Description:
Blueprint: E1 3-4, E2 12-13, E3 39-40, H1 52-66, H2 78-92, E4 102-105, H3 108-119, E5 125-130, H4 136-142, E6 146-151, H5 160-170, E7 174-178, H6 190-200, E8 208-212, E9 236-241, E10 254-258, H7 260-269, H8 277-288, H9 290-293, H10 297-313, E11 317-318, E12 325-329, H11 334-343, E13 346-347, E14 357-360, H12 364-377
Parallel strand pairs: 3-13, 5-6, 5-7, 7-8, 8-9
Antiparallel strand pairs: 1-2, 4-10, 9-10, 11-12, 12-14
Helix pairs in contact: 1-8, 2-8, 3-4, 3-7, 5-6, 11-12
The chain binds pyridoxal-5'-phosphate.
Amino acid sequence: MATVVAGYPSLHLTPMTLPLRPELEGLVPYGAPQLDVEARLNVNENPYAPPPSVVDAIAQAVHHAAQGLNRYPDRDFVALRRDLAEYLLRESHVDPLTFDNIWAANGSNEVMLHLHQAFGGPGRTTLSFAPTYSMYPEYARDTVTTYVELPRQDDFSISVPHAIAAIEQHAPSLVLLASPNNPTGTALPLAATLEICAAAATVPGGCIVVVDEAYAEFRHSGVPSAVTLLPDTPNLAVSRTMSKAFALAGGRLGYLAASTAIVDALRLVRLPYHLSAVTQATARAALAHSRELQAQVAEIRAERDATVAWLKSEGFTVADTDANFVLFGPFANREKVFEGLLERGVLIRVVGPEGWLRVSIGTAEEMALFRAALLEVRE
Ligand SMILES: Cc1ncc(COP(=O)(O)O)c(C=O)c1O
């Protein structure tokens, strides 16, 4: 049926047939609700806003960057990569780690997309272990990469023999391992990462193992980071983000540490100037104040451990977690519990296997609200 556009009687628009890729037909965009409620505990953000001193430092850096916004930014963002390398060096004491071992993009989501653009594609496979981060299949879908997901064990750990057999069977070009895993909080032991990297190294054509450490800074002390494996493991890439521990989700800065060969491949697929001058200035100012920004990480970890202990004392089953969130259950009707909490101003997430719910760790006040509301709505 043709549409007559008001005021333009001679112009007829025929309803358009969108040439949408068939695999996108009927899908909805990914994203959790963004609701202005008292306790927003659904997307694993840091509940503490940056302190005023850091806000001032970021504002000054952006003010300086704004004076050069007529020019494109440094497309290789070397200064930012140097700062990120220094941060990881301070944290993990891995030497050598220089700017050419670092890549960054608008959130680790974009880093993952770059990995798929460079190493995935038609006829190639990404392998991961469910339940895990729900964006993984989307990176694969958007780059026409086959996505194979195998189950984790009952305690949400990955069976290494199972993973090795899957690598032999599917010959993936990418293996995605979130550690701590979202939504379960499970950390992957370094020995397991090493064995999986060794199996991946035997894949004809090559295979890169990505350890997604978006929540690394929240891990319990004594739980090591895969960054320490980098010097001796050329097919390993470790992804990090400033969205969580750095309290900079709105700044959109994710990064990756890997061999220079992997980083050079990512440079081929990025759009030119993908990191704006404003983003680079914001991230560098935040990195210069990483201690102040992460001042509450210890508090969040303590609140997480207290939340786990409380949930267990109330008889819930709780997944072991090294992240800033907790997966708990079981619920016969988790949607009803979710709705009941929301009615009381507490927004959490319906995610993970049937019967489980995930709560992000908020401030002490938000967690008190969560506990009180959960006691009222529990079945
Ligand atoms: C496991 C995992 N990886 C990556 C991301 C993406 O984070 P960002 O794009 O903000 O860096 C998230 C976000 O929640 C996540 O849970």
